[in-house]
């Protein structure tokens, strides 16, 4: 199970190490609806092979023809910015969604050693920033950077790589396993808490850490911030409540718990009476957890929870982007 970021970096290294040349594409800005947010990456090899996507397929053919048409890797700026959908005619031509326009940075000579360092950071769930300058095309890595996942100004852009989003799942049941698998593909660093020995047996996801700690202890150790989510799916109040009573006091991006509307009301009453949670803290609880899509099976419920996590995450990203300095160049 790998997220898009890891797959693109691994493929870039495989192509470069085999002696091929490849251009690294990074989404810089989107205006209107967009299938790929700023910072998303894709690759185009010197023979036109494409890996990943920057637009869901709308502009990749034009970029492929430019890159594979000859001469792209032999001269010119190391970083080139391409804009699509600026005019009405272009938006109709590229069929960008909802009248969107798109800007993409194209790097013709990404450094293999740097991409390897990024890949190791992603696999270790360690944040690492990559800063790219437009003037000379230079790129550098840093252990710290802006708070937003992507920032651009007139000099260049910065992208945070590695696990920015973390998810703590309480419960290694069938639902917990499905949710863990989906969340990993959404670039969450996932940890599963399961103090019940019978549920820890034969854990099928070797890349997802499984902890036997009690939920309240693990929530506190998880050091929740606004990029962390906690979802309780054991359906055992003794365990779920232990996680919720701590998570709802912390600045988590998302806190949710499995259960019906009636169960949620009873849970909130318990948390208020026995653990002293305030109405404001209880209002942060997503319960019943997940989007209302008519889900019934564990796999369907996992999809509904993952969708709600994405909605919450997207709202936070939009807020962070609004606060960050941006250079809007068409």
UniProtKB/TrEMBL annotation:
Q: Which InterPro entries match?
A: MoCofactor_Util/Proc, XdhC_CoxI, XdhC_Rossmann_dom
Q: Which residues form a coiled coil?
A: none
Q: Where is the XdhC- CoxI domain?
A: 15-68
Locate the XdhC Rossmann domain: which residues? 167-309
- Could you tell me what this protein is called? XdhC family protein
The organism's taxonomy opens as: Bacteria, Pseudomonadati, Pseudomonadota, Betaproteobacteria, Neisseriales
């Amino acid at each position: 199970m790998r997220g898009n970021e890891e797959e693109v970096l691994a493929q870039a290294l495989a192509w470069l190490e085999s002696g091929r040349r490849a251009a690294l594409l990074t989404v810089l800005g989107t205006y209107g609806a967009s299938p790929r947010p700023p910072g998303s990456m894709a690759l185009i090899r010197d023979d036109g092979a494409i890996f990943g996507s920057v637009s869901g397929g709308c502009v990749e053919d034009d970029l492929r023809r430019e890159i594979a048409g000859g001469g792209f890797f032999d001269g010119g700026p190391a970083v080139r910015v391409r804009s699509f959908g600026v005019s009405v005619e272009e938006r109709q031509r590229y069929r960008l969604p909802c009248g969107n326009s798109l800007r993409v940075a194209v790097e013709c000579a990404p450094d293999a050693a740097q991409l390897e360092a990024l890949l190791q950071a992603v696999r270790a769930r360690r944040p690492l920033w990559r800063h790219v300058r437009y003037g000379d095309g230079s790129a550098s890595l840093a252990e710290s950077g802006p708070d937003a996942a992507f920032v651009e100004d007139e000099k260049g852009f910065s992208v945070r790589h590695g696990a920015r989003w973390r998810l703590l799942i309480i419960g290694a049941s069938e639902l917990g396993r499905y949710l863990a698998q989906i969340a990993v593909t959404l670039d969450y660093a996932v940890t599963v808490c399961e103090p019940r020995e019978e549920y820890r047996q034969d854990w099928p996801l070797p890349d997802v850490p499984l902890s036997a700690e009690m939920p309240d202890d693990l929530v506190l150790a998880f050091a929740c911030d606004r990029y962390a989510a906690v979802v309780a799916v054991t359906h055992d109040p003794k365990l779920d409540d232990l996680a919720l009573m701590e998570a709802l006091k912390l600045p988590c991006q998302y806190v949710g718990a499995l259960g019906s509307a009636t169960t949620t009301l009873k849970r909130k009453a318990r948390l208020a009476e026995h653990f002293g949670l305030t109405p404001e803290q209880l209002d942060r609880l997503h319960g019943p957890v997940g989007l209302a899509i008519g889900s019934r099976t564990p796999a369907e419920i996992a999809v509904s929870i993952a969708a709600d996590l994405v909605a919450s995450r997207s709202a936070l990203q939009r807020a962070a982007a609004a606060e960050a300095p941006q250079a809007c160049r068409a």
